[in-house]
Amino acid sequence: METFHRLAGMTETHNNQSEHPSYPIPEPPPIPDSETASQYAASTHGSRVSLPLNRRASRKSIRSTKSGKSQNGGIRPPTTHPPLPTTQPQPAQPRISQDSAGSSSEEFAWGPSHPCFPHPNPHCSPDSPEAQSTRVIRVRRDWLQAGDLYPQYANLYPEILDPLVTDEDFRFLISSLNARLKEVFNPHTTRAWLDSVMGVATGFVWDDLGLTGAKRGVRELERWVERWNAEKEREGKEVRVVQLRKTGFMTLDFVVPDPGIDVVDEGGEGGEEEMVGGIGPAE
């Protein structure tokens, strides 16, 4: 009988377990790939910038200025301050529009540093009629492009050159000169290294004979400027570009007829005699 009871009990237990409802077992999520994880992190979190590792600590911190009493928690007696004087309301000042403020901030102060200022012509004799009838419009070097490695001129068009030199002609002239100057004076070219080695090997006779790439490039550049001046002369425009060696490659000078607006003020007679880059009158 016990055997039958055992068999019956085991059967009941098995039946009770089978009567309980079976719940679905949730499946674990798939493990993402490394690329998927990185894309997910990049999409959910914004880009961050860490502090530089070579930063220096500030020596003027607030903690260094605290006294020993304040660090120990000492209590100071309350200080009495005098009453503040009453201020009368000031009248409202007229507001300046943003257009006028922006235009005044963008304009240059009129004087020898202005791009359109006509300088005296230092490339002729001071007593010649040309010195009295012509002026020089100077385009300065752009030191932000290449520093002092090779000359580069600013692409800032002086409107006083219109209509002798149009905006398109000026942009073409500046871009052509900058490209040629970079090719001639760039010290990181193979030709520059070859000229340096040949100069040392020959006791700089290579340089004296004018066989370097820089001297050849300067001669070609001067011939190109002469062709540009001849083209403007054929067009009947009284403008010419001074050879860059005469200005020491510091400025690009346009010789134009005197417009008669080179006076800074009535009392400043020495302002118009100022020369940019230390360029003086020709002997």
From TrEMBL:
Comp. bias (Polar residues): 36-47, 64-73, 95-106
UniProt GO cellular component terms: endoplasmic reticulum membrane; endoplasmic reticulum palmitoyltransferase complex
Keyword Repressor carried by entry: no
Residue spans of biased composition, Pro residues class: 23-32, 79-92
Region (Disordered) location: 1-132
Keyword Zinc-finger applies: no
Bilayer topology term: Peripheral membrane protein
One BP annotation, GO: protein targeting to membrane
Family: Belongs to the ERF4 family.
Subunit and partners: Interacts with ERF2.
Identification of the protein by name: Ras modification protein ERF4
Organism: Saxophila tyrrhenica
